Amino acid sequence: MKVISNKYKKVADFCYELFRLAKIPIYSSKFSNKLYTSFQHLFLLVYKQFRKFTYEELLTDLESNKDLKNYLAFKKLPHYTTLIKFCKRLPMKVLDKLVLAFKHLIPKPKKVAIDATGISLDNASLHYCKRIHKKIGKRPFMKTTFIVDIEKYIILLCNQRKKERHDTFIAKPMIRKLSKNYDSIEIFYADRGYDDNKIFKLCFEKLKAYPLILQKNFNVPKHRRKGTYRKLTFDVFDYGEYLQRNKIETLNSMFKKRFGSKAKSRNIKSQKVEILTRVIAYNIDRILRITENYILLIIKITRIS
């Protein structure tokens, strides 16, 4: 238990640092009963993703872990329904701020890639569905789009959408948001799904990066292609360098193997909160693996002071 406890103390320190950098208020409302802070609630949601527990199992586990309970300053643990209600009323802007706060804890990214993956919302076993001869149609999923630092395997931005939408419509606001928060990006990788002149234009003008995006119909000559910015990259496309984009597929696999490919929540808002807390948990886990001990020490000193 000692090793696990020490690990999650580091996770608690990272959550506290993110909480401080994102400038989130201690209590969600001035009318709050002030029994538990927002930090305590948010840490429990992230801790839940690490342990892959239900809400009830989470608090049962924490009750037996007195060392971690004291470290988080819990005099009394909340009821599991308290966490569910907090999850439902938690603004998505708060979690977006926490994801963006990672920019203060990681090196400046130079190579980024964008890609989408599906998080299943159906926990039914496909094997038993076949055994009972249940008709299996299209299984529901949450389309989750990541912008990733492919050198450090860290998620920089995340977007979730349940309804169908083309990748280019999702990518444009994400690139604008990326340009406002990161100014060190040199190359932007994407597959054919993002082959749109407006995306090329955003990369050149807003992001100030070179768009290494694979274009459709390579057999069509340049003079017959549409889009001024698409034509700029057609003659000098480096396919060998473009294959670095495959690293985002590796990250998608790492993310799902470590934290699961299915969301357990039933409410749409809760599903989005669950996926975003999973992103935060993944980034913390990744930073703990690649970061030197002296950075962890600085975070620890900052929390104590």
Q: What is the C-alpha radius of gyration, as a whole number of Å?
A: 21 Å
Number of domains: 2
What is the CATH T-level topology of the largest domain? Nucleotidyltransferase, domain 5
Class inferred from helices and paired strands: alpha/beta
Give me the CATH architecture of the largest domain, please. 2-Layer Sandwich
What share of the residues lie within helices?
40-55%
**What is the number of helical segments per DSSP (H or I, 4+ residues)?**
14
Task: Outline the biggest β-sheet.
Answer: 5 strands, mixed
Show unreliable segments. Answer: none
CATH class of the largest domain: Alpha Beta
% residues in beta strands: 5-15%
Q: What's the rounded overall pLDDT mean?
A: 88
Query: What is the global morphology?
Result: globular
Biggest sheet: strands side by side, in what order? 3-2-1-4-5
Helix and strand pattern: HHHHHHEHEEHEHEHHHHH
Give the CA-CA distance, first to last residue.
28 Å
By DSSP, the count of extended strands is 5
Task: Please explain how this structure is put together.
This protein has 14 helices and five strands. It is α/β, with parallel strands linked by helices and 305 residues long. The protein folds into two domains: 130 residues, no CATH class; 145 residues, Nucleotidyltransferase, domain 5. It has a five-stranded mixed β-sheet, with helices on both faces. Strand 2 and strand 3 form a beta hairpin. Helix 2 packs across helix 13, helix 3 crosses helix 5 and helix 8 packs parallel to helix 9. The longest helix is centred in the last third of the chain and has 23 residues. The relative contact order is 0.14. The model has no long low-confidence stretch (mean pLDDT 88).
